[in-house]
Fold (Atlantic silverside) hypothetical protein.
Amino acid sequence: FCANDPEVFLQAALLAQDYCDAIDLNLGCPQMIAKRGHYGVFLQDEWDLLERMVRQANEKLSVPITCKIRVFKEVEKTVCYAQMLEKAGCQLLTVHGRTKDQKGALTGMASWEHIGAVRRAVSIPVFANGNIQHLSDVERCIQETGVQGVMSAEGNLHNPALFEGRSPPVWEMAEEYLEVVNQHPPCSLSYVRAHLFKLWHHTLQIHQDLREELAKVKTLQALAEVSRHLKQRCQEEMAKAQGVEEKEGGLPFPHWICQPYVRPVPKQPGVNSTGQNSEGKKTGSQKRALEDLDEAADNLSKNQQKKRSRNPHKNFCPEQKPKYLKCEQCGNPKGNKCVFNLCRGCCKKKAFKEVADCPSHGLRFKTKAERWKAEKDGQMEGKVSESLVPKSGKGSCNSSQPDPLTVHNSECLGESKD
């Protein structure tokens, strides 16, 4: 769970406790979404709040409460942090040996020293996280830190067979994963695509067309077809003994083998022989142009930058996007032609309540009500007209009088006999 409110966390955990073996509070997420939502690692300085959350969960839940944390730069502060959680009721602690700022291009190496210090300072089980790329790393981490278990994230994403100590072909893991996805629907296509990008990371650097195809497909069947094409190409390369050479950066195995992904080190500005930054040779106008480009790129997310590369003529500048008037009730953008000057959600509620139409949002409550009333009135008129038609035989007041049609037919028959 990710949470920042003791009561909300407890109520959510109570709903889940009958379906799991433990409740884990994630205090290690460093992503921007966690910063905006004020949870994850961005709570690591609010010890009073965390103590209340863990203590209340430990007292009210029927299953253990566990936590995952990131370390501080100071070993002593990290140890005190772990001891506070243990005292509050945490029954298993996972320690990621990186700080809050170690993420993305600045991920760097995890500190097993911090993890070992925590392990020696608490009496509850401790799991280690960080620097786990091979099975040998698992064994070495346990030996150096003394932890009771090891957790792996990115290592498993690039090689799901990591804990088995083998490196299978990338398509083998992809086929197994897609089979699991088909057995347990529904699964968001974006999740499947993200896993395949991790599995095929090195291979997609070679086969760029498959990378583009993987990014565009819209169905699981299409993803399976991309996997089939990738498998076919890699097997052809294996047969021809091609693609074995290490590409720049040095891969321990051919690109079609599951293997760790090592993040590239951020490039440092170059320094010339005189000790001056090589950028100093550029003119002021050139530097200003480069700064403007860098600033424009920094304002875009990675996904937006990818979209811009695919759609170079599309405008992604936030300042130049069209401005929309706000809904009078909720503040969301209103429909440009809405008869109530509302967004679709608020318009639908108002139109339903007042039995009105809004052509802009495609709402026809009034039209449908009138149509339904007209159909109902037509049915009632039909029933009334049927009840007014006299019935022949029993119950008819004119049953003694001959039917005009019968008389006419008999007369015709009589004339024919004459």
Q: What stands out?
A: The longest strand covers residues 65-70.
